[in-house]
Amino acid sequence: MYLQKISLVNFKNIASQSFDFQEKINCFVGNNGIGKTNVLDAIYYLSFTKSYFNAVAVQNIRHGEGFFMIEGDYLMNDRNEKIVCSLKKGQKKILKRNGKVYGKFSEHIGQFPLVIVSPADRDLVIEGSETRRKFIDGVISQQNKTYLQDLIAYNKVLSQRNALLKYFAANRTFDALNLSVYDEQLAAFGAKIYEIRKEFLATFIPIFNAKYQIISGDKEQVNLNYKSQLHDFLMEDLLRKSLDKDKILQYTTAGIHKDDLSFEIGAYPIKKFGSQGQQKSYLIALKLAQFEFIKQKANVTPILLLDDIFDKLDENRVSQIIDLVNNDEFGQIFITDTHAERTENILKQGGKAYQIFKL
Q1: What is the Cα–Cα distance from 51 to 160, expressed in whole angstroms?
Q2: Half-sphere exposure of 80 (CA within 13 A, CB side)
Q3: Domain boundary residue among 296, 315, 345?
Q4: 337 and 40 in contact (C-beta within 8 Å)?
Q5: Cβ(88)–Cβ(67) below 8 Å
Q6: Based on the structure, what is the number of domains in the chain?
Q7: Does residue 262 contact residue 222 with C-beta atoms inside 8 Å?
């Protein structure tokens, strides 16, 4: 699978522009703020129906305009595929595949697999557990539709249970039977989600460790640990034990929506004890492991987006990363960089076909 062409109209700072792409490596170079990352984000949009950087869809419309449109032409298994995503202010977003409108955007997720590595990934280290859960869920959902539907259902029931707890508090009442309906559903969905996350991480963590060792040159030991209340308790027991606390706080305090990943270097949190280069290497290894996992499960080579990955890395780590992605395991790659000469020198060493767009 590869993206042959993309056309953008009123997307972020781009008024109207089209790009025809090389099958292997495509690079966007230029000064900061010129729109390099916006092109990568448009490519991401075609796979996930949303921006990687801005969750508010209408804010991706170019300032002063009333709509945006992204159109992508792919070649997949010798078939031409056209994806069009558009949004008008005041209307719902529309996603079409070969002219047919999707009823649910979730049906599209995983059809055109993609992995992005970006400076924004640092949120995985510095932000709260929700960001890391989204990472786990995003990887699994690209190749497991049942998991995605169970997750959507769990979050809907969770929202309903929280609303009921607020109602109880506001009206100074309590209805155990009514609450038990939500508890049963949360326990059923939660148990399935937990088992799939556990199984996923058992496969994923060794892949991640191997990638990090290559990037670091075997100089550092890292750990990635799955933290879940369901390691020790059944979901229904957690809900029962936390009920008094839930009633006071008016939301559900226990369950798989509290799961987390622990990022460590040595035996210490990488957030506090890792250098900027080590943190960036950790995140790149995480995303390259995501790439390999999706490729194994989907039997399709994902597109790889590398946004400004050379910054804050020493020359040895840059060389190791380029060697990693330059082999035949990877398909189409998109790279952004502020230094055109650096990018071209690195790519010449790799010996693969490439194309550079100077913006």
Answers
A1: 27
A2: 6
A3: 296
A4: no
A5: yes
A6: 2
A7: no
SS3 233: coil
Query: In this structure, are 359 and 263 located in the same domain?
Result: no
- Calpha distance 44→39 (Å, rounded): 9
Spatial CB neighbours of 357, under 8 Å, sequence gap ≥ 6: 19, 26, 27, 28, 29
The answer to whether residues 1 and 43 touch, using CB atoms and an 8 Å cutoff, is no
Give this prediction's pTM. 0.85
305 in the same domain as 286:
no
Lowest mean pLDDT among 141-145, 222-226, 338-342: 338-342
**By C-alpha distance, which of 335, 219, 222 is closest to 289?**
222
| Domain-ending residue, one of 254, 269, 296 | 296
Asked if 342 and 30 count as a contact pair (C-beta separation under 8 A), the reply is: no
Residues 309 and 188 in one domain: no
Tokens representing 75 are 């070649």
The alpha carbons of the chain give a radius of gyration, in whole angstroms, of 22
Q: What is the CATH number of the domain that holds 128?
A: 1.20.1050.90
Confidence check: pLDDT of 346 > 90: no
* Residues contacting residue 250 through CB under 8 Å, at least 6 positions apart: 162, 165, 166, 168, 169
Question: In terms of DSSP H, where are the helices of 250-307?
Answer: 270-273, 276-298
Tens of pLDDT, residue by residue over 201-258, are 999 999 999 999 988 887 888 999 999 999 999 999 999 999 999 999 999 999 999 9
Number of residues that this document lists for the chain: 359
SS3 (DSSP) at 314: coil
Site of tokens 């059944």: 234
Q: Are residues 47 and 159 in the same domain?
A: no
